[in-house]
Write a structure and sequence with these properties.
By secondary structure, the protein is an alpha/beta fold. The chain is built from twelve helices and eleven strands.
Length: about 325
């Protein structure tokens, strides 16, 4: 299994990516480092370097990237997967560009309407799989049905759950709440083979009342950014509290273990990245602020899904839930009805 790592994606590139590639290589994962060869110093001898002379900026539009950045490190890394020279791609770069390039180069899995970004959020009972994290701002009901299917498969593979519970994010748990999108999606999910448990409220994400929660990408990305802010706020507030007085410092010394366990639970680096599911390949998007551990974990995550044949399982589950109704809806969408 070979992972193509974009060496110029993170805020601290390429030093972080080089360290992550070296560590992943030490752990037995074959990494191909992609980027400007002249700037990649200190790379372990066993790691292949593929040269790419351009870099995609965080504020570049996906359309511009598709037209003009064919020699960018992210594009070249994705091309390696498309040509079969790598089995997965990992990047901490522009997520919109990653989405556009993955769809353009790798194409969609058979039967997939729209790929989605799947994330893992900490909850009181463990973790909640959340999809879509921002790939699709404007969604149709049949998109959300497929997001639920792909999220359920993801939860099975990542957490070894036999029948993950699925919820649809809404502004209340009652049937009458929500909007037209949630009404229609709710009807589709009820007819699916999934373990669908109905509407989920925002609090359910963090209490862990559902294994998988589904929303459109606009809402999902808002939830993601809010979650990052909450985690950062909690960490800073606890640090400030511990520094408030000598007695607080003494209390910290006794509770340091619990504090460190909490910090690990809410740290985005724990799972490293979020896969773009639904594309014909393995693509993992990780945070621009990623440290070495986050990128190593993203590489290991891609290997886990390669080993467990994530895409094969998604295709199989989608075939079960590809109803006549969703096929008609997609046909109408394509024709602009």
């Amino acid at each position: 299994m070979r992972v193509a790592l974009d060496a110029f994606g993170s805020d601290l590139c390429p030093d972080i990516e080089i360290k992550a590639a070296n560590e992943a290589s030490r752990q037995g994962i074959e990494v191909i480092l992609v980027g400007d060869r002249t700037k990649l110093k200190g790379v372990s001898s066993g790691i292949e370097i593929v040269h790419a002379g351009e870099v995609i900026a965080m504020d570049e539009s996906p359309a511009n990237v598709l037209r003009k950045k064919k020699d960018a490190s992210m594009r070249v890394a994705i091309d390696l997967v498309g040509s079969g020279k790598a089995d997965a791609v990992v990047s901490a770069g522009n997520s919109g560009a990653m989405m556009a390039l993955s769809m353009f180069v790798l194409r969609k899995l058979p039967g997939v309407f729209r790929p989605a970004i799947v994330g893992v959020l900490p909850s009181y009972r463990g973790y909640t799989v959340f999809v879509d994290m921002g790939a699709n701002v404007d969604c149709k009901p049949h998109y959300l049905l497929q997001f639920a299917v792909m999220g359920s498969v993801y939860a099975k593979k990542l957490f070894n759950l036999s029948n993950p519970s699925v919820g649809l994010l809404s502004n209340g748990e009652e049937e009458g709440k929500g909007n037209e999108l949630t009404y229609q999606t709710n009807d589709l999910l009820k007819k699916s083979s999934l373990n669908y448990q109905g509407y989920a409220e925002g609090k359910d994400i963090y209490m862990g009342d559902f294994d998988v929660i589904v929303a459109d990408g606009f809402v999902g990305n808002t939830v993601l950014k809010a979650s990052e802010g909450i985690a950062e706020m909690i960490t800073k507030m606890l640090k400030d509290s511990f520094k408030a007085s000598p007695l607080s410092i003494l209390g910290y010394l006794f509770s340091r273990g619990a504090f460190n366990r909490l910090k690990k639970r809410i740290d985005y680096a724990e799972y490293g990245g979020a896969p773009l599911v639904g594309v014909n390949g393995l693509a993992v998007i990780t945070h621009g602020r990623s440290n070495e551990r986050a990128i190593v974990n993203a590489i290991k995550l891609s290997k886990r899904f390669y080993d467990t044949k994530l895409n094969d399982a998604i295709i199989e589950e989608l075939n079960v839930n590809l109803t006549v109704e969703t096929t008609v809806q997609d046909k109408n969408y394509q024709e602009g009805k």
